[in-house]
Amino acid sequence: MSETFTKTMARNIFFGGSLFFILVLLGLTFHTTKALPERDNRQNLTDQVAQGKLLWEENNCLGCHTLMGEGAYFAPELANVYDRFGKNTAAIKAFIKSRPANGIPGRRSMPQFNFSDEELDALAEFLKYVSEINDADWPPNIQG
Q1: Could you point out which of 21, 27, 53, 118 has its C-alpha 20 to 30 Å from the C-alpha of 72?
Q2: Residue 66, domain member (yes or no)
Q3: Do 31 and 78 belong together in one domain?
Q4: pLDDT tens by residue, 24-66
Q5: What angle do CA 82, 98, 78 make, to 5 degrees?
Q6: 139 assigned to some structural domain
Q7: According to the model, what pLDDT value does residue 136 have?
């Protein structure tokens, strides 16, 4: 048996490895196309949720908070805030409303946005909608 690595051997490894990984890619693609419809949450998407998403973007909540691991790490993760508040949108609205006008001296704190009741409802419904997305148990801990 030869101890040398020939061009034929290298070519066979290349083509064999390429074929293997193409098959893996096709298998994962097929699995994803079968699994995504089962995880779809669009039936719960309402105009109020869309308005809450718009408020989320207009007030740059992602500048401080993370949502499903994306965003800044200055403030807590909000993809699971609905679960942390006991699946209670009223508690979320009360928390947002209770923020002091000038923050808490010496501490980082969420500003008071002075949302109307309609805006608070929309934001709470958006956070509820996000918490119901099947995100494969992300974030891994309930505290965010």
Answers
A1: 118
A2: yes
A3: no
A4: 999 999 999 998 887 777 777 899 999 999 999 999 999 999 9
A5: 25
A6: no
A7: 77
